[in-house]
Amino acid sequence: LPSNSVGGGGGGGGNLYLRPVFLGNLSHNCIASDVENIFQNPAPSGGMGDGEVKMPFPVDRVDMKRGYCFVFLKDPESLSEKERTENYVGEINGMNINQVSN
Predict the structure, then answer these.
(1) How many whole angstroms separate alpha carbon 21 and alpha carbon 72?
(2) Do residues 21 and 2 lie in contact, with contact meaning Cβ atoms separated by under 8 Å?
(3) Confidence (pLDDT) at 48
(4) Of the four, 23, 42, 82, 90, which is 20 to 30 A from 96 by CA?
(5) Contact between residue 89 and residue 7 where contact means Cβ atoms under 8 Å apart
(6) Please, are residues 67 and 25 in contact by the beta-carbon 8 Å criterion?
(7) What is the C-alpha separation between 68 and 76, in angstroms, rounded?
(8) Which H helix or E strand runs over 90?
(9) Could you tell me if 18 and 85 are in contact, meaning their C-beta atoms sit under 8 angstroms apart?
(10) pTM of this prediction?
(11) Are residues 45 and 51 in contact, defined by beta-carbon separation less than 8 angstroms?
């Protein structure tokens, strides 16, 4: 189950900096492109039946380690884009993702 954390870079309403996203409990066969796919091709919103299609979240880089990684997303251009990204990270928190989770 990946566990994720994202923060606002120290607060402040106008701060658009995104901290790296931590993904843990990754399969040892997981590669960076598997992780990038979670953000480049996000699954539609589930559970409420609306099936809203999500726009991609641009990945700057993925630092793979054994069993975990840090995902560096490109800094958003607006506060609403930052909130959208943080909401998505919250949605995937604790999810078991095929080909990625251990």
Answers:
(1) 6
(2) no
(3) 43
(4) 82
(5) no
(6) yes
(7) 24
(8) helix 79-92
(9) yes
(10) 0.74
(11) yes
- Which residue shows structure tokens 């993925």? 62
Q: Which of 97, 80, 101, 86 is nearest to 14 (CA)?
A: 80
Dig out the tokens for 5 from the structure: 């954390």
Tokens 């069993």 -> residue: 67
Instruction: For residue 75, give the amino acid letter.
Output: D
Instruction: List Cβ neighbours of 16 (8 Å cut-off, separation of 6 or more).
Output: 75, 76, 77, 78, 79, 81, 82
The string of DSSP letters for 34-55 reads HHHHHHHSPPPP-SSS--PPPP
Q: Is 80 helix (H, G, I), strand (E, B) or coil?
A: helix
Check pLDDT > 80 for residue 97: no
Closest of 1, 53, 62 to residue 27, by C-alpha: 1
Please write the tens of the pLDDT for every residue from 26-43: 998 999 999 999 999 987
Sign of CA dihedral 13, 15, 17, 19: negative
